[in-house]
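Quick one: structure tokens for this chain, please?
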Amino acid sequence: MRILISTRYLGGSGGIERHVASTIECLGERHEIDVCATHAVATGYAVAPDRARVLPHEQWDRPSRRKHPVAGTRSVARDWRRRRGALYDAYLHYQHAEHVQRRFPVGVRMVIPCGDDVRSIEDRFDAVLLEAPDNERFVEDKSKAVLFPPPLNVPAARSVAVDGLPAEFFLTIFNPHHPRKGQANMQAVAPRSPIPIVWCRSSQSPYPAERAAAEFDGIVVLEDRTQEELRFLYERCRAYISFDHNQASAGRSPTHCSTACRRCRAGEG
């Protein structure tokens, strides 16, 4: 099977970056994968399976002459013709990536919400692949919502030491492209934390303007770490902390800072 993936980021650190890498690794074992990536780096969750390739920008980053169809106007016959002549059997679109399904003949079209509402674009897709049960709130047509187990890639086979770390630390990995990611919460909590917070992020992501160093009191910032270095950090941190506002409601189990701090003070864990 041939699969086309469109993503804003390939490589680097972060939840979506890990999801993209895991999907490519899992599908790349059996299928041919082509990836359209707006930003790509060779660090962090960067993968290159034998059966996957990154398409050059000039092959897909051009204006489409055809407009997206209006919801409800696409006929069954048109769908059949589209899939019959498809260059790709399936198209996976990570929200906020470039829409390239009109630049290549594709079969089944699926969108991954990436924690955001997809109602304004869901008419362009045959299915919405939810990342958590409560993600149905992002979808208007519930019949399109499909919940799959998350793809999980195999961790790096070995760890590589990261220099300059505190003796003990909490770990968090996210890119602050939206207030819900929790950068403000992290900066409010870090000065009161009994041990520093190591924050991994990608340099390719858009960041708010860096302000005074005092705003990062208690925070050690690391950018563009390899998977081997990320394994080292995971293995040695006192606890992993998620500051994301959506994490608890998404059915995940983040370690909240207040709980981790109480355990640290009590000498537990």
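The radius of gyration is 20 Å.
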